[in-house]
Design goal:
A hairpin with a 2-residue loop joins strand 1 and strand 2 (15-25). By secondary structure, this protein is of the alpha/beta class. It contains 8 helices and 12 strands. It starts with a strand and ends with a strand. A 6-stranded mixed beta sheet has the order 6-7-8-3-9-10, sandwiched between helices.
């Protein structure tokens, strides 16, 4: 088991945002957290890596209690890609290298440089490696953030809307990479998404959140049109094309 969430709740200014959320992520598994705006998907990710502190419940990564870890220890086990990135005055290479910080003791090693170089190549950022991150596009900046998380060599990867600023080609490229990394390196990956069709194509499991609670968790192949209608309030059909489920709204 990579991630085990046991009955976590979160309140903001006394207002309940999440209530008794429980689920698990196995090795080599990619989980998509789905639901309409405002149901607490981003809040849930931030509770998992202790950016926010749940009012109750337990978060474990490989049986370690995340909520009792120091921030640097969390960074050695959990990689986090936020929805929005703040560009700074550093090169793409240096921005990705920042992800090695939890592992660097005295100085940057050859292994650190090798890992960073590999991540940059896998994300097709090689031609931009010496460009400043405040001089690249929003989509390219998102890829830099994903690269920074990957070089942490985490056991759990958390991504908040990882494809929100990317075109179709880059969406497929990024989600294929995340899927491959999870499967080949036996880590867990959790991503929030709005694009149901991308989620059904790339995720192994889906967790539907409604009004701050888990409505349903199931394998991707078991997602039903009735679940989507109940969560989003929109009647849909699920058809299959090319071996993938496709969600089509019914007018």
């Amino acid at each position: 088991m990579i991630l085990d969430i046991d009955a976590i709740s979160f309140r903001y200014n006394g207002h309940p945002v999440l209530g008794d959320i429980s689920f698990a992520v196995e090795k080599s598994e990619l989980l998509a957290i789905l639901g309409p705006n405002g149901v607490g998907k981003t809040t849930l990710l931030r509770c998992i890596n202790a950016i926010l502190r749940p009012s109750k419940g337990v978060v474990r990564v490989e049986n370690r209690d995340v909520l009792s870890m120091a921030p640097m220890e969390i960074a050695r086990h959990v990689g986090y890609v936020a929805q929005q990135q703040a560009p700074g005055r550093m090169t793409v290479f240096d921005a990705v290298l920042m992800g090695r910080r939890p592992h660097i003791r005295w100085q940057v090693s050859e292994r650190d440089l090798h890992i960073v170089d590999g991540a940059i190549k896998s994300l097709n950022l090689g031609p931009l490696a010496m460009r400043y991150v405040d001089r690249i596009s929003g989509g390219e900046l998102q890829k830099v953030a994903i690269g920074r998380a990957l070089v942490q060599e985490p056991r759990l990867l958390l991504l908040d809307e990882p494809t929100s600023s990317l075109d179709l080609k880059n969406q497929i490229e990024i989600l294929s990479l995340v899927q491959r990394v999870a499967h080949e390196h036996a880590i867990g990956a959790v991503m929030t998404m709005h694009d149901l069709n991308m989620a059904l194509r790339f995720a192994d499991k889906c967790l539907f959140v409604k009004e701050g609670r888990v409505f349903q968790s199931c394998r991707t192949q078991a997602v039903k049109a009735e679940t989507i209608e109940s969560v989003y309030g929109v009647p849909v059909e699920i058809l299959h094309h090319g071996g993938y489920p496709v969600v089509i709204p019914i007018n």
